[in-house]
Design a protein that fits this description.
Length: 68
Protein backbone atom coordinates (compact mmCIF):
# COMPACT_ATOMS: atom_id res chain seq x y z
CA UNK A 1 0.00 0.00 0.00
CA UNK A 2 1.18 3.51 -0.83
CA UNK A 3 0.00 6.33 1.45
CA UNK A 4 0.53 10.00 0.71
CA UNK A 5 -1.01 13.44 0.90
CA UNK A 6 -1.15 16.47 -1.36
CA UNK A 7 -2.30 20.05 -1.00
CA UNK A 8 -5.37 20.86 -3.10
CA UNK A 9 -7.41 23.96 -3.76
CA UNK A 10 -11.09 23.49 -2.93
CA UNK A 11 -14.10 25.13 -4.48
CA UNK A 12 -14.24 27.74 -1.73
CA UNK A 13 -10.69 28.84 -2.70
CA UNK A 14 -9.30 27.43 0.54
CA UNK A 15 -6.36 25.06 0.66
CA UNK A 16 -7.00 21.57 2.02
CA UNK A 17 -5.12 18.28 2.17
CA UNK A 18 -6.08 15.17 0.22
CA UNK A 19 -4.88 12.13 2.16
CA UNK A 20 -5.07 8.82 0.33
CA UNK A 21 -4.07 5.18 0.35
CA UNK A 22 -3.49 3.20 -2.84
CA UNK A 23 -3.05 -0.50 -3.53
CA UNK A 24 0.55 -0.88 -4.70
CA UNK A 25 -0.11 -3.72 -7.11
CA UNK A 26 -3.20 -2.62 -9.01
CA UNK A 27 -2.90 1.16 -8.40
CA UNK A 28 -6.46 1.37 -7.11
CA UNK A 29 -7.37 3.97 -4.49
CA UNK A 30 -8.68 2.19 -1.42
CA UNK A 31 -9.11 5.21 0.88
CA UNK A 32 -9.11 8.99 0.66
CA UNK A 33 -9.94 11.84 2.97
CA UNK A 34 -9.95 15.63 2.57
CA UNK A 35 -8.81 17.49 5.69
CA UNK A 36 -8.01 21.07 6.64
CA UNK A 37 -4.76 20.12 8.39
CA UNK A 38 -1.83 17.83 7.68
CA UNK A 39 -1.56 16.01 10.97
CA UNK A 40 -0.75 12.50 12.09
CA UNK A 41 -4.32 11.84 13.28
CA UNK A 42 -5.63 12.64 9.78
CA UNK A 43 -3.22 10.15 8.24
CA UNK A 44 -4.28 7.51 10.77
CA UNK A 45 -7.92 8.02 9.74
CA UNK A 46 -6.97 7.12 6.15
CA UNK A 47 -5.32 3.90 7.37
CA UNK A 48 -8.46 3.08 9.35
CA UNK A 49 -10.66 3.63 6.27
CA UNK A 50 -8.33 1.50 4.16
CA UNK A 51 -8.46 -1.30 6.71
CA UNK A 52 -12.25 -1.54 6.39
CA UNK A 53 -12.05 -1.69 2.59
CA UNK A 54 -9.45 -4.45 2.48
CA UNK A 55 -11.45 -6.45 5.06
CA UNK A 56 -8.77 -6.39 7.74
CA UNK A 57 -6.04 -7.94 5.58
CA UNK A 58 -2.66 -6.51 6.52
CA UNK A 59 -0.49 -5.18 3.69
CA UNK A 60 2.99 -6.69 3.38
CA UNK A 61 4.53 -3.25 2.99
CA UNK A 62 3.37 0.33 3.52
CA UNK A 63 5.24 3.06 1.66
CA UNK A 64 4.90 6.65 2.92
CA UNK A 65 6.83 9.88 2.83
CA UNK A 66 7.37 9.67 6.58
CA UNK A 67 4.43 11.64 8.04
CA UNK A 68 3.27 8.64 10.08
Amino acid sequence: MHADEMKIKTKQEDWSWLQYGMDSEIRYTIANLITKHREEDDARKVFSIAKTHIRGAKPKLVITDGLV
